[in-house]
Fold:
Amino acid sequence: MKIIIIGPHGSGKTTIGRLLSKHYSIPFLSSGEIVREYAKTNENIRVFLEKKEYVPDEFVNRIIVEFLSKKEYENGFVLEGYPRNINQLNYFLKYFTIDVVVNLIVDEKILIDRLLYRLVCPNCKENYNIKLKPPRKNELCDKCNVKLEKRIEDNFEGIMKRNEEFRDKTLSVIEKFREMGKVVDVDVSSTDVNENLKSVILKIDEFREIIKTSKK
Structure:
């Protein structure tokens, strides 16, 4: 099964994606991690990351398609962070067919709280939240005992800018997938990750059953 997870920043794409990967026994892939891996050996890509700029679509498209074309991903994957705009979507669809697109929905006020108070472990990448999911020890990772960090972009202005970019560029991607009959909408506003995961799995399984029945 090939799954794409789409949602605004703070909706829990990476967390939900990793858990879905375990549940369905398929690899989880983050487009950001893929691009950063390529940047280690490609100066043309690395220069954009060093300037904290978006890597142009012409590079990202080729990188993602090349990566997903590996044999270990032919039976399925959970992909987060791509496609972000219509240009990326059109390129992607030339090479891959997606089974289901999970559209994560969260109230904007909840998104702001999730990001504004977020802390991240620089070692294991575990996310915490001062208000919603504080670490057991003051600003130390429960797993690594390493001091947690706040991302530079996790301020009110940065959060609102990313939300605006999501509305301007990515909502059209969701609607295109919806026209293709691939989208399941899931409210993941709960502070309980397991509750959100159950909601996502339920919607995916219901969707798969509908598709299966329609083919009989």
Remarks:
- Helices lie at 13-24, 31-39, 43-50, 57-68, 86-92, 108-116, 156-179, 193-214.
- The longest helix spans residues 156-179.
- The chain has eight helices and seven strands.
